[in-house]
Design goal:
The complex is a heterodimer. By secondary structure, chain A is an alpha/beta fold. Chain A is built from 17 helices and eleven strands. Classes of the chains: A alpha/beta, B mainly alpha.
């Protein structure tokens, strides 16, 4: 002991502890994050990637994905490691099976209070509701068929439904039948594609015309246009699984769209590998207004997820600094 | 910089500002002129709806018989008559009658419009070298620009439905008839034109009695291609809400139902063949003057 000076001993101790923390960070290693092909999912994925990379030293990469393929791939192969915005309603079965087999972990909500801030529904423009407040109810809409004229069949009203092949087409058709819209003089129109659906809503809103259409939040269209969701009553889960969600159900009863479950799901491997990253993902719950701001930015600037993520991290520090410890926040800010 | 593999491009922010200016400009244009443009297309929309109602409302056997009769009158062939009856009945048996009638109405009007607009443009191009130089690039754009690029602005202007669908189909399908009319007229032998001049024909008489008849094989080929391309656009039209055979095909694609796609696709093929044989038969009879000519 006398041969080694106390200061050098202290220096060695410091060095060893530094290596220790370095090893702990490098344990995060390779992380794949699913970047799904809609705006909010892209922004969420890129924000996670940036923070994990620059704040936690992970080798974070985004991989393209979509709800069904990513859910299958994660439940079968536990890859990619993180799905930041997984809409659970259509994939509950495979995911819960994987959780039971300890291959996946459901971390929590990605959006605060998804019941209010997200979800599918039938929407009308706010300028219509301002003139005619009863349009927030189905009964009011049925009474005012004339406000929703179908340009190709002016004697009838029009409900712009879901495009072919979307799961919501089944729900919308059943709800259309259940609320007896046809006898009230409405046509259910299939717009053909998501782009045409958005275009039709946009066109009507731009001209101040009346439109009743299916749409879902959070989306750029709904943060840009001021629309109000029609009150379809309380959601009956049993009726949904028995009838409303099943194609060609003979006798659908009035129901609503399901309350969305949008969760962050991670592979158990990754959860065990990197507890700090897990702590971040648990703390990371987006506020509705921040989500909306990012979506609007993406729409205005035609930005992709990466650019939007950087904009968010630069311009909304009070939002994300709450999700990470102070030292991580400094590292992320330095990297911007 | 010279050894960098990244192309020196305009700054991202400038690109985005440019995109935004274009988008905003289009939105203002759409807001100001949208209603009047919609009103301009209204008569066409009413015609489309009326024609579709007729085909849908008429009893199926009358539609089959009338179509087969038109086929016979055009081609004077009993084989074609029988073929049309069998093909249309098969379509009905497999439950695709209504969709086929909708597509038939839509495509008939689209083809008619393409021919009515395309042939005069082709004639104009044949007469004028400058016209040809100006119009050919436009045709190139119309045929290769991805449909959704001009479809979504059209939807934002006119909404979803038949008129944007018609615009999409005509833009894509009109090019062959224009090109081949132009080619056919230009390929008419100079000697024939000189002979017509020698007989004192006026320009209009030369066009109608000499140039068009001699250019007919090419023009008919152009019409055939226009019909094929119009039917090929059926699925794209269904992506902006046009009802008909395109929608089940689209459903089949998104849900991976192979059989549904196959059946409806075959119905589209059958329609195409019927249209084609009828027009070709008519065209061949118009070219009776070629019979006896050395082949």
């Amino acid at each position: 002991m006398t041969l080694i000076k106390k200061s050098s001993l202290a220096a060695m101790a410091l060095a060893i502890s530094a290596i220790g923390t370095g090893v702990a960070q490098a344990a995060c290693g390779n992380v794949t994050i699913a970047e799904m092909n809609w705006a909010s999912a892209q922004a969420a994925a890129r924000v996670d990637a940036f923070i994990l990379k620059h704040g936690y030293g992970c080798d974070a990469q985004t991989v393209p994905g979509d709800t069904m393929p990513t859910a299958t791939s994660m439940s079968e192969k536990a890859s990619p490691d993180i799905a930041p915005e997984l809409w659970m309603n259509n994939v509950t079965e495979p995911i819960e099976r994987a959780v039971a087999q300890n291959r996946l972990v459901i971390v929590g909500n990605v959006l605060e209070d998804p019941g209010t801030n997200a979800g599918e529904g039938w929407w009308v423009p706010r300028y219509m509701v301002e003139k005619n407040p009863e349009l927030t109810t189905i009964a009011g809409i049925k009474k005012n068929v004339g406000l929703f004229k179908d340009p190709e069949d002016p004697s009838k009203g029009r409900v712009v439904g879901c495009p072919s092949g979307w799961a919501c087409q089944i729900t919308t058709e059943n709800l259309f039948k259940a609320y007896d819209m046809e006898s009230a003089g409405f046509n259910l129109v299939d717009p053909g594609s998501g782009a045409a659906l958005a275009g039709a809503i946009f066109k009507a809103y731009n001209r101040g015309e009346g439109v009743l259409a299916y749409y879902w939040a959070p989306t750029a269209l709904l943060s840009k246009l001021d629309m109000v969701r029609v009150d379809l009553g309380t959601f009956d889960a049993k009726e949904f699984t028995d009838c409303t969600g099943i194609a060609n159900c003979p006798n659908p009863k009035p129901n609503s769209f399901p309350v969305p479950e949008i969760k962050t799901v991670v592979a158990t491997d990754f959860a065990q590998r990197s507890p700090e990253a897990m702590a971040y993902l648990k703390a990371r719950v987006w506020q509705a207004k921040d989500f909306g701001a990012v979506l609007e930015f993406m729409e205005e600037e035609q930005a992709n997820g990466e650019v939007a993520a950087e904009w968010f991290l630069q311009n909304r520090p009070d939002a994300w600094t709450q999700w990470v410890p102070a030292d991580v926040a400094t590292k992320v800010k330095a990297a911007l | 910089m010279l050894w960098s593999s990244d192309f020196p491009q305009i700054a991202d922010t400038t690109l985005r500002q440019l995109s935004r200016t274009i988008d905003r400009g289009y939105l203002t244009f759409s807001r100001e002129y949208g209603a009047s443009i919609e009103a301009f297309f209204d008569p066409l929309l009413h015609f489309l709806i009326w024609f579709e109602r007729i085909l849908l409302g008429a009893p199926w056997w009358s539609v089959v018989l009338v179509t087969a009769a038109i086929g016979y009158l055009a081609a004077r062939s009993w084989k074609l008559f029988a073929g049309i009856v069998i093909a249309l009945c098969l379509i009905g048996v497999f439950g695709m009658w209504e969709n086929t009638m909708r597509t038939m109405a839509m495509i008939l009007v689209c083809t008619l419009m393409s021919i009515l607009i395309g042939i005069p443009i082709g004639i104009f191009m044949a007469r004028s070298n400058r016209g040809q130089r100006a119009i050919l690039p436009v045709l190139d754009v119309m045929q290769t620009m991805p449909s959704f690029v001009y479809l979504i602005p059209v939807v934002m202007l006119l909404g979803i439905g038949r008129v944007p669908g018609l615009i999409a189909v005509v833009i894509y399908a009109i090019a062959p008839v224009i090109r081949l009319t132009n080619l056919g007229i230009r390929l008419v032998e100079k000697e024939a034109l000189e002979a017509a001049d020698a007989f004192g024909a006026s320009r209009l008489q030369k066009l109608i009695k000499v140039q068009l008849p001699l250019a007919l094989p090419n023009i008919m080929a152009g019409i055939n291609q226009t019909i094929m391309m119009a039917l090929a656009m059926v699925v794209i039209a269904s992506m902006i809400g046009v009802r008909g055979l395109g929608q089940p095909v689209l459903q089949a694609v998104t849900n991976q139902y192979f059989a549904l796609g196959l059946f409806n696709g075959t119905a589209v093929v059958i329609l195409a063949i019927i249209f084609d044989r009828v027009t070709q038969g008519f065209g061949l009879r118009l070219q009776k003057h070629r019979e006896g000519a050395p082949q």
